[in-house]
Amino acid sequence: MSMLTPYRVLDLTTERGLLCGQLLGDMGADVVKVEPPGGSSARSIGPFYNDMPHPDRSLYWWAYNRNKRGITLDIEREEGRELLRRLVERTDFLIESFNPGYLAERGLGFDELSRINPALIYVSITPFGQDGPKASYADSDLIILAAGGPLVLAGDEDRPPVRLSIPQAYLHASADAAVGALAAHHERVRSSLGQQVDVSAVQSVAIATQSYILAAPLGSAEARRMSGGVKFGGLDIPLVWPAKDGYIAMTFLFGTALGVFTRKLMHYLCENGFCDEATRDKDWIAYGEMLFNGSEPLSEFERIKSLVADFTRVHTKAELLQLAVERGFLMTPVSTVAEVVESPQLASRDYFQTVEHPELGASIRYPGPFAKFSATPIQYRRRAPTVGEHNREVYRDEIMLSDREFAELAQKRII
Amino acid sequence: MPDHLRDESLPLSDVKILDFMWVMAGPASTRMLADYGATVVRIESPTRIDTARTLQPYHNGQLGPDSSGLFANCNAGKLGIALDLGNPAARTVVHDLVRWADVVTESFSPKAMRNWGFDYENLRKIKPDLIMLSTCLMGQTGPLAKIAGFGNMAAAISGFHNLTGWPDRAPAGLFGAYTDYIAPRFSAMSILAALEYRRRTGEGQYIDHSQGECAIHFLGPAILDYTANGRVDGRHGNADAVFAPHGVYPAASDDCWVAIVCRDDEDWRRLCTAMKQETLAHDSRYASTAGRREHREALDAAISDWSRTLDAGDVQSILQSHGVPAHQVQNSSEAYRDPQFAHRGHFIALEHPTLGKFTVEGPRAKLSRTPAKVRRAAPTLGQDNQYVLETLLGYGEERITELAAAGVLG
Questions:
Q1: Which residues, numbered 219 to 258 in chain A, qualify as contacts with chain B under a Cβ-Cβ cut-off of 8 Å?
Q2: Nearest-10 crossing angle of helices B265-275, B296-307
Q3: E-strand spans in A295-411?
Q4: With 70 as the cut, is the pLDDT of residue A233 above it?
Q5: What pLDDT is recorded for position B148?
Q6: Which of A121, A156, A170, B298 has the fewest CB atoms within 10 Å of its CB?
Q7: Could you confirm whether B84 is annotated as catalytic?
């Protein structure tokens, strides 16, 4: 038995919000993914297994529908809606990501469904939230990142702001939604009542500004994009540095908390002939303040950055990582996807999990449990469902449709 | 919580958390739980300052012990006690707090808690059904377990930086400590699920949370593209695998930008109509998504020629009124004025004990019947020493004076 084993989740999400149900499924819930007949639109999102586009081969689908069963159901027709209501009677959480009002127009809004099942927790994941002047705005990952604040902070200063090449917005929103759903559940144990959990992806991604979204109300300067680093006034602080065989990320900062790391690094550089003692002995705690008040010229900071880069550039990523571990320097390699999958650290923790895809005769390695629970370890019980894979199991065995009813609904393409 | 902050209507009003976490990833997770009503007692060192207290942005642009917006944002709604964990006299106080708590959380490098004797094996002896969560960059075990650092480093080694930026350039990197933005939700949901399990079984447990490992799920399709297809994905600028056009375009003012996306041919026709560019609409090169992707540079130039003549906000409203996904690329000032953020109550002005009005971000997932609340500003160092020791632990005045004299409190 796992943490959420007794609970049933109906997952009506479109291509946005799929992660939320998977997280509840990883923690043990029985998650039933509900798709329109023919399959979810998310199944058309690549890349595809062996680069062959097919609804059951979308790697995007695979990545976010593990630990779910799958049924098809046409909620555009009343017979489909009636079936959904029957499922809702025996459901603890419903997750959806339609535009605000879409389900309500079909008689499947929170108010209607909570009348059928007052304990239902109804999780809605949308771009801008259920209400407000932009609630019906058209969206995509890039639009949400633009509205929510992180986009303006990322990129090279001589080019437009740039996003991470893998869409992120609905993953942030899905994770917030899972927390909200479980908080609502905790309360339901006392009150026996459900409620709606309303998540705005724009608000969710605002966390990726590292609180810089508060600069204006706090009366602080805006930060500007600077190639993974940060730019304050005339001060450019890079976070990505060159290595012999690629790049590293390094925190090269000052002040009471971070200056001590910089001091340690500068001592090492001096020992190894990359800088003189006078440079080594600068006040790295106060250094940021000195640059701001002009007692240290910016040209001197440029010289320091260039000698630090001279040091990083002659070492491989692996050598620099080893130094970081041994000496407590704040640096790690900028790893490729291949290096992540082959990582000795992740291997030593048995992170990647092999999931069988018997219909393809394939075993695929997946990112492993998001945390290690001592009493209730996360288990990958099943790969993402193929289209309608569990129709019979759910409709026949659980809501007890007769053979005839089942065949009739299938024939009408309700399921 | 002090009486005026207690609120039984909040969903987690019965949950008690002893929080040893610091910087961002950890404290941001217990901030979520505090919003939903948990009583969070946060321990800070009186001598080793929480790094978050030194980080920008600052209240009135001035660095001070309580002026960090990051610290304020991650710790609103919590109680604060300053306790020197290295002092042997702190031990009984910690043990009493563990007995009081349902959940203990910590985010030090592995070993720190063991060195103090506050690791799970020791603490469960005094509280058998304890739930304890440790979160750190790479997890509690393995060759990199003890690596010190921040979320930018975990993001880089977990594949994020290499996938951000332009294909013809070095990684542009993500802003700041990216895994610190992902991890808090995973910690918070782990705690809530473990509480549910304890409710049913009476059993607590230990949760080893690696910020890198949970974050890798945000690269899921790219990871599978490698494990299933052997492909190592790279940086694509703002190009999308499906949509075109898909980019960030210049607006009239200097360094102002607007994101524009066409999800399908219908969006493309609407975009042409909105730009009053009927010739583009009939250009056969752009008739399909594949064509628009192939001729991306010419297309982006044409869109830029139009967007550059307008304010970013105007591009946004014109395109949205035609149903085309578009939004100005907002900085803090623009977000603070944004009517949608305002409608959602995203910015919340709190009263800070020393700094006056202090704005933080509001709770995220909105619960319709029992909404979250941000009950107070982040604590100053040791602000709640007296309340925690006297009211939560029931210590007498004499005991508290003794602790102060022993130099345990800050």
A1: 219-223, 225, 227-230, 232, 239-240, 242, 247-251, 255-258
A2: 40
A3: 331-333, 353-357, 362-366, 372-373
A4: no
A5: 80
A6: B298
A7: no
